[in-house]
Amino acid sequence: MGLQILVSYICVLGIFWPGVAHSRRYQPTWKSLDSRPLPPWYDESKFGIFIHWGVFSVPSFGSEWFWWNWEGVHRPEYVNFMKENYPEGFKYSQFAPAFTAEFFDPDQWAKVIQKSGARYVVLTTKHHEGFTNWGSSVSWNWNSIDTGPHRDLVGDLAVAVRKWNLHYGVYHSLFEWFNPLYLYDKKNKFKTQTFVVDKTLPELYDLVMRYKPDIIWSDGDWEAPDSYWNSTGFLAWLYNDSPVKDTVVTNDRWGAGCSCKHGGFFNCADKYSPGKLQNHKWEMCTSIDRRSWGYRRNMHLSEVMDLPSIISTLLTTVSYGGNLLLNIGPTKDGTIPVIFQERLEGLGQWLSVNGEAIYASKPWRVQKENSTAVWYTSKGSSIYAMFIKWPTDNTLKLESPISSSSTKVTMLGIPTPLKWKASSPKGILVFLSSVSMFALPSEDGWTVKLEGVS
After folding, report:
1. Residue 423, Cβ density class (10 Å: 0-12 exposed, 13-18 middle, ≥19 buried)
2. Considering the chain, what is the average pLDDT of its residues?
3. Which intervals hold domain Glycoside hydrolase family 29 N-terminal (predicted)?
């Protein structure tokens, strides 16, 4: 029996082999698994890059759900696109050879990601179309080794990003829209697990053993319960005996009803932003292209997030205790569109000045002052007040901090202390008139550091 199949059956049966264990072993129950502390590196990182890349990057029309929209629900705009641009009888699988990635330079990608200020990256290893960006032995020839790029995209990027000391994560869809094995189980109301045993679990184990990811970003879970996916069995192995048991983090998409309830950090839903402090670590994933996660040739500039919007999203997310996972969609030939590179570089420049208020920060007792559009974070005894609109009177009004005789106020990027005075009945007025507009450390947002306040 092959190793992957053996591992799958062991997982389904809920049996675990011995290995180097933690001081405690996690049982294949949500009560036990949810008690696992989140490895600290994830919360400290605050910001990561999401990459949606696959065969859907070839038609590059509409969204990464192209195949489903075309042949699953027959949306007119997708059906008409195919009629107008491809011959009758054209199959989705015929897009795969054009997924060439001939310009894919993983070192250049890693450099772009590093310059963005991100501390981790999550690559789609397999989206709902089922095409794997590595040589999965259970994918038949529907993978990047046997067709298209003829290279291990997952492995090549893993090597490159780790040169920059970035954490590497893998996105993996549990289900596949049109896989006959999945459709068989679905027809049986998920009482059979043919697809899970023969496809999903072998791929998950292979990804862990081959690439040793720091994040497993699961998706495509919502049609079936976690018992069908045997999620608790896999996660117990991952946390107890896998080579990444002490460092790996996972999300919450492990079966219908799991989102925002079970798992490592919570995604809850795409573009989730609770707007208040949470008692569980969470992540907001969003895309620079507001309308799609995958690359679209019909993308318009007005549909692309501008830099101030990205920065304000980051501030909102981090101030409420979350991480931001910002998505880009590369082209079929392996290039990151210049507009995405420009946005990422701009964010990186902002973080090079203001990152002290972001990385390894903690939420403060006040997260945001809506009336003044100021976001707060804290680190030790320091409080950071961040704003993206320069006050017209050059006076920054902070309503929440309480000053003391030892209060010191500075702006990140400018060493000279700023003048201030206490406001009645509480708060601080920070005078910015001494800051030359020509000496501003950034153009799209600023951070005032407060020491000696309560």
Report:
1. middle
2. 94
3. 22-356
